[in-house]
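Quick illustration, no need to memorize.
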Amino acid sequence: MGLYLSPVADTTSGVRLDRILVTGDEEGERVDRLLARRLAIPRSQAQSLLAWGAVQIDGVSPSRSRRVRGGETVEVRWSGAGIVPTPAPIPILHEDDHLVVVNKPRGIAVHPAGHAPAVTVVSILLSRGPLAPGAPGRPGVVHRLDAATTGALVLAKTGDALQGLSEQFRRREVEKAYLAGVRGEVGVAEGVVEGRVERDARRPWRMRTGGRKEASTEFVVLGRGEGVTLLLVRLRTGRTHQIRVHLSAIGHPVIGDPLYGGGEGPLLLHAWRLGFRHPATGEWVEYEAEPPPELAGWLGGRGSTPRR
């Protein structure tokens, strides 16, 4: 089996570092196979760790087909490396051994980025316990919400959960319903916005229509009045800024979205319901996130929005 050195805490980030000493019996084994066996993770996850640069052999990042040699030390830095856990309150909608679902507050990024503050959803959850290894700086991240968007967000705590949830998102098997307050009174009861999107080459911080990636957004009017409309929105695809771009394209930008014509103030976009098959049990589960006061007041005291 070989010597497996116990995980040690990285005191600068509070995350895990695994070291594996390769034995003579393991000489010539592919490093991705070695990692999968020694760490008891799926081989695809081992290959992802290698692709993301989370693995080093004697200080050098190997390819996944690299053959190990006896006496080498293989180090795996789980993807929270460099993230300082930051205890802070965050609404938990559900948590078990495999995943955690939160109601993301406004103004908090999902994971660290070059411009992001130190406190993120990831850093808060790392203060509670480990998340699944993922892309660098993105442990447990399956999908994202913009920092200004509130609502239901699921993160994985194990490699199997990360793989299973990611596959469901990729295959568009996940139910995602949003509440959006938009400018203007939408003249139809319901509709579908079809329009390809891509990143704006001249302004790379925003997206534009007429691009290369297919995108489709459904909406149902929940209420109108005084030049504003409350929509229930469902995504058939999941592109960056998709709801914001599509609603702006039909002349009804999301309120509080200066990037796409919605003006200043709180962004009135809320990931209200999230449904998926639990990656461990296969059971369909659904979570509803209470909307912020700016949107909750629009529901007129009728509680949960209708299931359309």
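Residues 159-170 form the longest helix (12 residues).
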